[in-house]
Design brief:
101 residues, alpha+beta, 2 helices, 8 strands
Length: 101
């Protein structure tokens, strides 16, 4: 889908410079938290949602979050786990689907 307004210059056969629409891919990942039901008061469950696809789940116990949320190293490790879920979810997309590097 053309995102509108942006163009890039491309060389065509015969050394002709031409404006063509630039195609952008926009990846929006959401991380919904589940803290209801059997988890209520005990843990968070989180998944990555990209469009209609959902990743596998990570469960974080309340005490772990409470005790470690101030630790930069723990936050960085959690961010890397979530990035891994994003990569896995994108890789599991439809065959032939474009992916950004």
């Amino acid at each position: 889908m053309f995102s509108g307004g942006l163009t890039t210059m491309r060389w065509r056969a015969g050394s002709e410079l031409r404006d063509v629409p630039r195609q952008r891919e926009s990846l929006h990942a959401e991380v919904p938290l589940d803290r209801e039901g059997a988890r209520e008061g005990k843990a968070y469950g989180l998944r990555v949602r990209i469009g209609e696809r959902l990743s596998s789940e990570i469960e974080l116990a309340y005490p772990e979050v409470r005790d470690r949320r101030g630790s930069l190293a723990w936050c960085q490790a959690l961010a890397e786990r979530i990035r891994g879920l994003v990569r896995d979810t994108v890789a599991a997309g439809a065959p032939g689907q474009r992916r950004s590097a």
